[in-house]
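User: For my dataset I need records formatted as: sequence, then structure tokens, nothing else. Please produce one.
Assistant:
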Amino acid sequence: MSAQAPSAVILIRAEKFKPNPATAADNAFQGDAPAGQSDDETAGKALAEMDAVADALRAAGVRVHVFSDEDHTRPDSVFPNNWLSTHAGGNVAVYPMYASNRRHERRADVLELLKSQYRVQTIVDYSGLEPDGIFLEGTGAMVLDHVSRVAYAARSHRADTHVLERFCTDFGYEPMAFDAVDEEGVPVYHTNVMGCVGTDVALFALELIGDEHRREQVRERLTVNGRKVVEITEEQVRQFAGNAVELCGRTPDGKRHYIMAMSASARRSLRPDQVAAIEESCTIVDIDIPTIELAGGSVRCMIAGVHLDRRPAAEPELTEAVEAIDENPHTADGRDVADEA
């Protein structure tokens, strides 16, 4: 199994979803619900899309942990990758968030599930930097190459380079920061909308990196181990083509295979040659999520990958821990514990 492609993921089933007014100012990808559509109708459509993502990943043989969220004050909780990341060796990071109404998306029950079902050695919590106005929004702000140990980051107030360097020191990555703007000069708010890194292929909007020398450095670093770079355009970025994630699933006969999960909008924006390049190493799994994309994020933003080793089921502390999680009203319907991909 590739270090880049996790075989398990965490999803949040946000029952009160709606585009977050607190993030609209700097998220150029965010939109409004159709005129006349109520908040309840928007939330209902989004909920069906969340379930479709979970079902598609399960069908591909990915282990899916689903947590429910009924709190109407957390409209963006469907995007857990901004506050949480996991790493080989049992390491977990918790991040400082820019929007104040997103900071209580961080959940102890998610961390407890990780500790009960996976080998967690260390949790490094950077959220104490929020009062100082310093932010690094997880794998939204960073696109991580877990194989070559590189953290790509477009500079913004959601991706402070001082915290980036601190994270890289703590977790053993090389920081590669750059400036990226759209055709109107607006900074890219999250790096993961302009690109993703897989084991053998990367999708990246290198044209958004204005400094030609830095652009070529990023290109060279992406390809140093033979990885193919599929360059995407700004228009494709706006259709969320960069907001994809490589995962490891299992076929019905138990064989591992790699998938590239993305939205249907992202898939439709790709040219045939780009699709062919991606599918040389992984199968595209696309899901239609137009309501969720109104919030300015897509499939990658919805997924917190689990890059941790599973605990053996026979370990005595596991049963007690899982039972405690099941009693928590914020956890899902039990499928996260029962599913065995």
